[in-house]
């Protein structure tokens, strides 16, 4: 986690009012945190914005979901054909959403970190500060209603109350630090039993309040006397299991680990599998001893576990290529993990999904571009102006760089 201090309203500061170091030490992946009057969140999404999304943006599943009294409502009840010129069958129908809302159903707008600009920016900023992928959903619940029964998430969340009030009841985990393959539905009886006990936190969130819940903590929420709108920021933080999965992906490149098992090996017989297990563990140890941290980074990128980089403006970026000048300023696309790999006659930029190789004369300019700062094209070292423009055009075309606005 990248921590910091000061009075600037960073993305994390909009979620927790305490210093980042204190939050990391006392709460991150450990304990809930309820914070009062943290911020006004109506600039991110308000009730008018919800109406805009539902009535004028042509949303489709899975960007919308609805639930009532603990059960998810079939999408066919609020979606249908898109009409002339829209050959789709799952577009949200605003009049059907109205009917369900009017009957007490909860509306969930999903994936807003991809479609609503203020939340695209918030998710990107928070993801870069914390070093984790961030997803954002919005929950709208009519007065006196509850959409979902007590459950837990397999990722941590920040809850930001935008409008109305909502009562949250939080219980301790039935499984510590669950991962995605351990959803609450597989422990429904245990969850229901714990939910009958007194909660460790029973609080009403009002506009501007925030709540942090580590993964695994049971929770249920119900609207009180007004329409309740809150944002849930899901933090898909990596775990040691994630490291193991990245290593497993790399293991496919090791010949000693691709050796087939002896003919006739009975995987259901402990005595038959014992020597195979011993040989496999030995081969794993030998291979793991050869790995460097850079190898894990490579495996990590191959698993796709890293956060999406900041969005680019495709039209503006394409137009910029035609009129690029040495006076323009560029930077690495925010949130994109890049590293330089130098050889005697070449230099490569290694991205999560590809490697871009250039002549070695570009090495000094590449090193400077990857330092995270904004650079004037004409100031890049080791090249003349024509070569600077060729280099920057290529990296803009590869979407590794963006123009500084």
UniProtKB/TrEMBL annotation:
Gene3D superfamilies with a match to the protein in the record: Cupin
Database matches in Pfam families: JmjC_2 (PF08007)
GO molecular function, one term: oxidoreductase activity
EC numbers, comma separated: 1.14.11.47
Keywords assigned by UniProt, alphabetized: Iron, Metal-binding, Oxidoreductase
PROSITE patterns (alphabetical): JMJC (PS51184)
Name recorded for this polypeptide: Cupin domain-containing protein
């Amino acid at each position: 986690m990248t921590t910091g201090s000061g009075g600037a309203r960073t993305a994390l500061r909009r979620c927790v009012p305490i210093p980042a170091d204190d939050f990391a030490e006392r709460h991150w992946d450990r304990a809930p945190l309820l914070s009062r009057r943290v911020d006004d969140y109506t600039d991110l999404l308000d009730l008018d914005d919800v109406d805009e999304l539902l009535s004028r943006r042509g949303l489709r599943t899975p960007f919308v979901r609805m639930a009532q009294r603990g059960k998810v409502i079939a999408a066919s009840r609020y979606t249908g054909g898109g009409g002339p010129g829209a050959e789709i069958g799952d577009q949200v129908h605003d009049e059907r959403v109205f009917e369900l809302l009017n009957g007490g159903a909860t509306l969930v707008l999903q994936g807003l970190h991809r479609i609503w600009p203020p939340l695209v920016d918030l998710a990107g900023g928070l993801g870069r500060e914390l070093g984790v992928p961030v997803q954002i959903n919005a929950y709208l619940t009519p007065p006196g209603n509850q959409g979902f029964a007590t459950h837990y998430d397999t990722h941590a969340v920040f809850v930001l109350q935008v409008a109305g009030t909502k009562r949250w009841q939080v219980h301790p985990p039935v499984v510590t630090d669950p991962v995605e393959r351990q959803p609450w539905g597989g422990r429904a009886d245990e969850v229901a039993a714990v939910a009958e006990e007194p909660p460790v936190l029973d609080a009403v969130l009002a506009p501007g309040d925030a709540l942090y819940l580590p993964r695994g903590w049971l929770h249920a929420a119900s609207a009180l006397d007004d329409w309740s709108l809150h944002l849930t920021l899901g933090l898909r933080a990596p775990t040691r299991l994630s490291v193991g999965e990245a290593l497993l992906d790399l293991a496919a490149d090791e010949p000693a680990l691709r050796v087939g098992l002896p003919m006739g090996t009975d995987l259901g017989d402990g005595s038959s599998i014992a020597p195979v297990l011993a040989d496999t563990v030995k081969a794993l140890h030998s291979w793991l001893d050869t790995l460097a941290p850079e190898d894990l980074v490579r495996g990590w990128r191959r698993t796709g576990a890293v956060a999406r980089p900041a969005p680019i403006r495709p039209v503006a970026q394409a137009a910029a290529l035609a009129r690029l000048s040495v006076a323009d300023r560029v930077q690495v696309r925010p949130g994109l993990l890049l590293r330089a790999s130098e050889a005697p006659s070449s230099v490569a930029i290694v991205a999560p999904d590809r490697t871009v190789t250039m002549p070695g004369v570009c090495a000094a300019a590449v090193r400077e571009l990857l330092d995270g700062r904004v650079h004037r094209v004409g100031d890049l070292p080791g090249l003349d102006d024509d070569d600077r423009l060729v280099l920057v055009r290529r990296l803009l075309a590869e979407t590794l760089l963006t123009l500084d606005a």
